[in-house]
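Predict the 3D structure for this chain.
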Amino acid sequence: MKHPIAASLAAFALLASGCATSDLNVAAAAPEDSQIISLDQVNVSSPSGDLQVSLSAENGALAWTADWRGDRVIQPSSLGLAFKTGRDLNRDLIIASVSRANHDETWEQPWGERQFVRDHHNEMLAEIAFTDGTPAFALRVRIFDDGFGFRYEVADTGARQIIDEQTEFRIDPTSKSWWIPGAGWNRYEELYKTTPMSDMHRAHTPITLELPDNGPFLSIHEAALVDYAGMWLNQRRLGTLEAELAPWSDGTKVKVEGAFVTPWRTVQVSDTAAGLANSDLILNLNEPNALGDVSWAKPSKYVGIWWCMHINECSWGSGDIHGATTERTQAYIDFAAEHGFDGVLVEGWNHGWDGDWFSNGEIFSFTQAYPDFDLEGLAAYAAERDVYLIGHHETSGAITNYEEQIEAAYALYERLGIPAIKTGYVADGGEITRRDADGKVYKEWHDGQYAVNHHLRALKLAAQHKIAINAHEPVKDTGLRRTYPNAFSREGARGQEYNAWGQPPNDPAHTTILPFTRMLSGPMDFTPGIFDLNFGKPVTEDPRVQTTLAKQLALYVLLHSPIQMAADLPRNYEARPDAFEFVKQVPVDWSESIMLDGYPGDFAVMARKDRNSQAWYLGAVTDEEARTIEINLDFLDGFPYEAQIHKDGADADWKTNPYPLELDFQSVDQNASMTLTLAPGGGTAIAFIPLE
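Done. Predicted structure below.
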């Protein structure tokens, strides 16, 4: 009996679980007399019907579009994969069949910006064949009310090398865009550019766009980046952003063996910028928790021997001003215990920091401490005070050297009761060091397939030792914290340390852009809480922190991280107990988070509810402009609260007078509204405490 093409494509059903780690056996071709049925166009809509994605095949080429409430937001855009050898998946294609499904469940995060996440989507699985009837691949689309994702699912064709992914996003080039350059020396640590999309060249994701005539807003990113290269977006032709994959040192983009799936290519859509920040799309496109019980991964606040190095009061390397000494660490442990902090981060404790540590990656030890740092004794001392050490593993990008020691290092930390590690990969973009078995050295990208796979190996191994990871100079976040909840936080953007260096510092608008760009991908270890904003110098001298004191408090609510630092020196907190009380009080784990209002580059207002109480917290920040913002308090629960308001004082201004801080108290409920008055570069931080 002869079978039609649909039968020879049935192997794609094995990919329906969402994992492509097993080999699939797909027929090489349909029987000669099979009837090839081609569908010219198929589409799938979101549960509300507001959003629609369409897929079409014309003259052997695939294209996709997206419509928001009847208006085209993404014009016909190409799809395809090209390989070094074998048949490319970019021409002579037809849509052979389509199947549909819908899904609606609510799942619980062990920690996060909200406790319960609803996953409500419709799905279309389009099976793509070549015009001769041979199965090509499947394209899976999942569409939610606030965005969608699609990915390629490719059956086993042996070991191959992808040399180009030809996914496109065609968007009106006059759209306003917020973006940072991709494939640069400074990785993701750039100030955001605000330009017409036409001025964008190669960009990291997430990128955020506002289409002409007041929107909607779009954010383009990726989800579930596993065993693949990170995606940059390259505007080679005006109005067309094409996926460009971070290459291996040999120029190959991705090395695959057997069946594989790509990461999800994601687009979030909202009428407002705030709507983007309230989306769970990226998390929902990741697989459920693969680690089981992760009650050992506890959100926490920490202090650390860190800022003194950035302002040159102490050093990473050994010597007269070595920061990581037993004496100093004991003092930090005592400070943490006195004020209710969970952990103490210590950088510069291990051999390898002396000299040019930026180039010293191959000599770092991750188990051997400097003589003036008693690792075992300090771990025991911390435990006696109900505090723990947070480990630090700076690799200078020498991943092979790290992986040769990682098992011993994690086992040591588990034995000493160290439950979290801040990892670091300080190296210029494209300078990750890979050493093969013969000792030959290769240079790879921070977001290339090699580094992507390393970060996942580290997470899995850390989980075996009940250790959480906070990665700096990382690969970007793509929601894998759902699958591996010990992926606590990461950097992946310009953090607080740039305010110490002044090359240049983060401008007042920077933290008003992050919630609508970088933070859409997941938590960030920004390290807020600097109280000495000009490092003891006259207030108008640079470098300095370009915020008011109140804005530093607001950042604890605005920029989510489950491992949150009080970044300044203990003496500076002791000098400002009024402000320090908020830092000690504000939670790091939330049952709900709502971006109330905002516009990237102007302002942002975030409200979050404590997971462990009925209290709510609010953080509002502005750019260099003073701003008055009206907010409704209808997010509060149905009982009265005391609003404890930390706000910019009279005449506060980030440039000339950043320190005035006022504490005000109001009785409010969910029927009330508030007027927030923000100074230039300022902010407001509020704790809403239920009244008994």
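The longest strand covers residues 93-108.
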